[in-house]
Amino acid sequence: MTTCGTVMKSLLLLAVVVALTGQGSAAVEKFSDCCTKVSREKIPETIVGFIVQKRNNRCVNAIIFQTESGGLYCSKYDEPWVMKKVRQLRGTKKAALASTPSLLKLITSSSSPPRLE
């Protein structure tokens, strides 16, 4: 019986390894720990945010885009489509911040607080 359990564990481990390696490499580089290589290709998903990664140790200069589904992709920072997307995302963020009333304004406003019913 112990042999059966060991065989099952081995088969399960083998299935996990095959599943992980069977995914292959996508044309667009996905983020892992940090970007060690980048892609020039456009990301086929909706992009909702980004992080600028500076070169250090094994990491390269990159823009790490986050997609709506939570995926992170390493993109070449000086590609025209990447720069355009970064400008667009920064503009969207500025507009959202401008339309949100600041906490300081809410605290110091002279108007009376709303009535609670």
SSE diagram, text form:
Layout: H1 2-21, E1 47-53, E2 62-67, E3 72-75, H2 80-99, H3 103-108
Antiparallel strand pairs: 1-2, 2-3
Task: Tell me, rounded to a whole number, the average pLDDT.
Answer: 74
Q: Any idea what the shape is?
A: elongated
* Biggest pleated-sheet summary: 3 strands, antiparallel
Approximately how much helix is present in the residues?
25-40%
Strand order in space, largest sheet: 1-2-3
Question: Spans with pLDDT under 50 lasting ≥5 residues?
Answer: 7-27
Q: Which fold name corresponds to the CATH topology of the domain at 26-100?
A: OB fold (Dihydrolipoamide Acetyltransferase, E2P)
Q: How many angstroms does the end-to-end distance come to?
A: 69 Å
Q: Indicate the structural class.
A: alpha+beta
Please write the string of helix (H) and strand (E) elements: HEEEHH
E-strand count: 3
Beta-strand content estimate: 5-15%
The helix count comes to 3
Task: Work out the radius of gyration.
Answer: 23 Å
CATH architecture of the domain at 26-100: Beta Barrel
Report the CATH C-level class of the domain at 26-100. Answer: Mainly Beta
Task: Please explain how this structure is put together.
- With 117 residues, the chain is α+β, with helices and mostly antiparallel strands.
- The chain has a domain at 26-100: OB fold (Dihydrolipoamide Acetyltransferase, E2P) (Beta Barrel).
- Helices cover 39% and strands 15% of the residues.
- It has 3 helices and 3 strands, in the order H-E-E-E-H-H.
- It has helices spanning 2-21, 80-99, 103-108, and strands at 47-53, 62-67, 72-75.
- A 3-stranded antiparallel beta sheet has the order 1-2-3, covered by helices on one side.
- Strand 1 and strand 2 (62-67) form a beta hairpin.
- It starts with a helix and ends in a 9-residue tail after the last helix.
- The model is unreliable at 7-27 (pLDDT under 50).
